[in-house]
Specification:
single chain; 169 residues; mainly alpha; 0% strand; disordered C terminus
């Protein structure tokens, strides 16, 4: 069985595991550190590594499922993920993402944009804002975990893309 042909299914199930794992009762002790947003890293990594075949419907479904299970405002993240993924696909047609530094810079801009829009939405909706320290630690840990997620995706699921890109260089 060729794993490369079933990337969408594999990424969908990885996303489901990433969504369910933080809310599963693993320990009775309280969590000391804020967990990074691995789902956002997975979504952005997939869009960057395979922009033509990344499925918008799977991305929105994963985001909506995370909204339900993580008690986030329903529909806010899927809309932001949709807008962000479409803008990234548009940027990819204009600019090459071959440099890993560009991938990290665009991810940071993507994360800042999404967090800013969520902050503005919470101001408009008069909902409770996230504590700055919690937001900042999640932001830093998400940025630090992004290279690991992209590296694992490149090695495990997109190694044929890497080979085909190296043939043309």
């Amino acid at each position: 069985m060729n794993i490369m042909k079933h990337r969408k299914i594999i990424i969908f199930f990885i996303g489901i595991v990433i969504i369910i794992l933080p809310i599963s009762p693993i320990s009775s002790q309280p969590v000391i550190i804020e967990k990074p947003d691995f789902l956002l890293c997975l979504i952005f990594g997939w869009i960057i590594l395979d922009p033509k075949k990344s499925s918008i419907s799977i991305l929105i479904l994963l985001s909506f499922f995370a909204d339900i299970l993580w008690y986030r405002p329903l529909g806010l993240w899927p809309i932001l993920i949709l807008l962000g993924s479409l803008s990234i696909k548009l940027i990819i047609t204009k600019i090459s993402f071959d440099s890993f530094l560009f991938k990290v810079i665009y991810f940071i801009l993507f994360l800042i944009t999404i967090d800013t829009l969520i902050f503005m939405t919470s101001l408009i909706g008069l909902t409770e804002e996230l504590d700055f320290n919690i937001w900042f630690t999640r932001f830093i840990f998400t940025i630090l975990s992004f290279p690991l997620i992209v590296y694992l995706l490149e090695i495990l699921l997109f190694k044929d893309k890497k080979k085909s890109n190296s043939k043309f260089l």
